[in-house]
């Protein structure tokens, strides 16, 4: 596919040279349409949650290795070509190092134990974007959750940072990768929050006993 695209580009340049001004105009139009036809993904993350993730149930310290990130997000496609996602991957930059987070499928019976937040998710497995296999188009975005885990970092390390640079990668059903770069601000608004389209709500409860 890439070889064919390069061949078409060379032919278009030859036409431009031989055709003078009309050829140049046609070539510019060709490349504009070609760029427009590609999918172009972006994401908005109205809220996210960081927490501990332990394989060993006895290791309950926030300083122990093992953390998770749950993203509540909307993925949009401003290009003219629909995209059907296959998988999503996540990398986070902590200090000078990029850490890969592993994909984690969300189940309906998943429980979060938090002294900081009251968390309510409505049928989270049905909104897990790792399971989303519909086209994302310029008129039909995808709403839902993505959860990732990392066994090296502790949640304490994550929460020391004011803002976490992340790279979210969507691999489509044709194995083409689409990267989305964002930052997660850890100084989030601590007001009670409800996102009806995502089916999520949570409330900070600092100071409660």
Explain what the structure shows:
By secondary structure, the chain is of the alpha+beta class. It has 2 domains: 1-37; 39-204, Immunoglobulin-like. 20% of the residues lie in helices and 39% in strands. It has 2 helices and 10 strands. The chain has helices spanning 2-37, 155-159; strands spanning 41-52, 67-77, 85-94, 97-103, 117-121, 142-150, 163-172, 177-185, 193-195, 200-204. A 7-stranded antiparallel β-sheet has the order 1-2-6-4-3-7-8. Strands 5-10-9 form a 3-stranded antiparallel β-sheet, with no helix packed on it. A hairpin with a 4-residue loop joins strand 9 (193-195) and strand 10. The longest helix is centred in the first third of the chain and has 36 residues, at 2-37.
Care to give the gist of this entry?
The protein has 209 residues and is an alpha+beta fold. 20% of the residues lie in helices and 39% in strands.
Helix and strand topology:
Layout: H1 2-37, E1 41-52, E2 67-77, E3 85-94, E4 97-103, E5 117-121, E6 142-150, H2 155-159, E7 163-172, E8 177-185, E9 193-195, E10 200-204
Antiparallel strand pairs: 1-2, 2-6, 3-4, 3-7, 4-6, 5-10, 7-8, 9-10
